[in-house]
Write a structure and sequence with these properties.
Order of helices and strands: EHEEEHHEHEHEHEHEHEHEHEHEHEEHHH
Number of strands: 15
CATH superfamily of the largest domain: Glycogen Phosphorylase B
Structural class: alpha/beta
Helix content: 40-55%
Number of domains: 2
Distance between the termini: 17 Å
């Protein structure tokens, strides 16, 4: 793969709050930057990923994939042990005051001496001011023609605090989906869309013995939901659907994995009010697929909440083995979970916002409202349509193949080539 005009004489710098450490993973952003950086490095490009990292790990580390990790703000993170967004504003101010000068001195200027152009990929509102300062510093140092800054919006959070004119003057503004593009039109911005992707390993077949093991434990209607406890994720809608299905005699079980967000209590309260039995599942002795299923088997409940870090291996078994995965968000800038479920061959409910990959009753079920009865109607219909369910699973798997990071990177490179010419980046 070549970036055409830039050829292979380019290095990538990615900046985000989230990253690959458990301390730094809070949602889809951490997954995005981790997998994109791996993909670019595997293609042979020098890649540095700057993020708010675990204070107990090395400040600079090269991974097996040849990505150079820079754990920023570690001296602050020591005082904020609850994760990346603990002490968020202090960490943002540290980025704004120290990072631009550091990255120009330690990355851009050495790159210029080596004949490398530097492409920056900076993510979300927390990096907006930092990206502006960086652009202004590069112009002041006479280095702008050697660099390209792409500032990307993964969500609309913090938009009201962004100086859009200044950001547009110093960066190229991008967005993760057409849905986000349309939201940003309201601010007078027309961003370039650079979509999310999934790694190739997401397409690997899920071992049938693990799926069978799960379904022996849960032979009836099995649902799943994974995501932050956010109102945007429509958790209460999902819980209400479970209760409605139970009232209709379907005996549903749902396995969930949320977070520590305050909305969790509202979700639990609604479940209790609806008469659903909620069981917290603590970390088992063996955090393996079999170990987690064994821990689940010790309880009888309607809702099983996994209250520990769940490895990807089990999540994929859950996605593939559940009858339906409820990724029914009301505001989803992209919807990575839906795509991950498709890659596993699962059958997923998604919303109707940023899920550019979704086609209702073709590769998923795409719902239009926040009324739980809409999901119930589709579930009852699908339970009677075995061939339709199988076709949706097949089509979802085929669709997911078009979203692997290598294909997303191909589009990214073409856009970089165009934007480089548009913004005067010398070849």
């Amino acid at each position: 793969m070549s970036t055409s005009c830039l050829g292979n004489k380019v290095q990538f710098v990615i900046l985000a709050m989230e990253g690959p450490d458990l301390y730094s993973l809070a949602g889809g952003l951490g997954v995005r930057v981790t997998e994109l950086s791996r993909c670019l490095a595997e293609m042979g490009y020098p890649v540095r990923l700057f993020f708010i990292g675990d204070p107990a790990l090395p400040p600079i580390e090269t991974t097996e994939d040849n990505v150079i990790l820079h754990r920023w703000c570690q001296w602050l993170s020591v005082s904020y042990p609850r994760g990346v967004y603990d002490g968020e504003m202090e960490k943002i101010r540290e980025l704004e005051t120290a990072w631009p000068e550091y990255v120009v001195r330690e990355v851009v200027e050495p790159g210029v001496r080596q004949g490398l152009k530097t492409v920056f990929l900076t993510e979300d509102w927390q990096t907006a001011n930092t990206s502006m300062y960086l652009g202004e510093l590069l112009a002041k140092r006479g280095l702008k023609q050697h660099t390209l800054i792409l500032w990307n919006a993964n969500n609309s959070y913090g938009f009201s605090d962004i100086d859009w004119k200044r950001l547009e003057a110093n960066t190229v503004i991008t967005a993760v989906s057409r849905y986000m593009k349309h939201i940003m039109w309201q601010y007078g911005i027309n961003p370039v869309v650079i979509r999310n992707g999934i790694p190739k390993r997401s397409l690997q077949p899920v071992p049938m013995q693990h799926i069978d093991e799960l379904r022996v434990q849960y032979p009836g209607l099995l649902l799943a939901k994974v995501g932050r406890y956010s109102m945007d994720k429509r958790w209460i809608m999902a819980i209400e659907a479970v209760a409605e299905l139970k009232n209709r005699g379907h005996k549903p079980r749902i396995i969930v994995r949320g977070g520590k967000e305050e909305h969790r209590q509202a979700v639990r309260s609604r479940a209790n009010a609806l008469g659903l039995k909620w069981q917290e599942i603590e970390k088992p002795a063996e955090v393996t697929v079999s170990g987690i299923i064994q821990a689940l088997s010790s309880y009888d409940a309607d809702v099983y909440e996994l209250c520990f870090y769940v490895p990807e291996e089990f999540i994929r078994v859950l996605y593939a083995g559940a009858d339906f995965v409820l990724a029914n968000s009301g505001h989803e800038p992209f919807g990575l979970v839906g795509l991950e479920v498709m890659g596993c061959g699962g059958l997923v409910f998604v919303g109707s916002t940023g899920e550019d990959y979704a086609s209702n009753l073709v590769n998923c079920i795409s719902i239009e409202t926040n009324d739980h009865r809409e999901m119930v109607v589709y579930i009852e219909y699908m339970l009677s349509q075995r061939d339709v369910r199988a076709a949706i699973r097949r089509n979802g798997r085929i669709n997911a193949e078009t979203f692997v990071w290598e294909k997303i990177a191909e589009d990214l490179f073409l856009k970089i080539n165009f934007l480089a010419a548009q913004h005067g980046l010398t070849c």
